[in-house]
Amino acid sequence: MTLPTDLFFYAKWSGIATIICLLVAIVSFVVGWGFRFRLVGVTSFMGVLTTGIFALGLGLFPHAKIPGAARYSLIYDNGANQAVVAVAPDIEKSAIEPTLLQAASDLYSYGRTGANGDNQFTIKLRTVLHPQTGVSQPLFLGEAKRSLITREDKDIEIKVFSQNINKLPPAKNT
After folding, report:
1. 122 near 145, Cβ under 8 Å?
2. Residue 144 has pLDDT above 50, yes or no
3. The pTM is what?
4. Is the predicted pLDDT of residue 28 greater than 90, yes or no?
């Protein structure tokens, strides 16, 4: 069952029911029924309900699950065209590219805008190493660039920073 499609179907029928309630309310005013003001309330409620169902249908999108992607945390997001996600330092080398694809899919939104006419959304993947006690070293492992315009972007540009991947602990770098 795909919810957005079903919700639009329900919104259509709720809209039809709202129009019927509106027509009955108009007839009640013409005829002079005593409960005509209650019909105005019912029509108003139906209008709000229809709008809510329609808006809910706009907000739900299918979630793509990329095989091999590691868990990540959103660290920085300017709400426009840049985001940074963090992974554990024991990430496998083979999981970096799928994790970038997963983040590019998850963080896309129609509300994002490009700065200075740039229509690219950049997601950077990083981890934090602790070479000594009390010392933290951020390490960028890769980045993904995707279109801000197209939700189903097939041309996502992935860069994996192999020089930084070699700095990961040797036992975990498989």
Report:
1. yes
2. yes
3. 0.61
4. yes
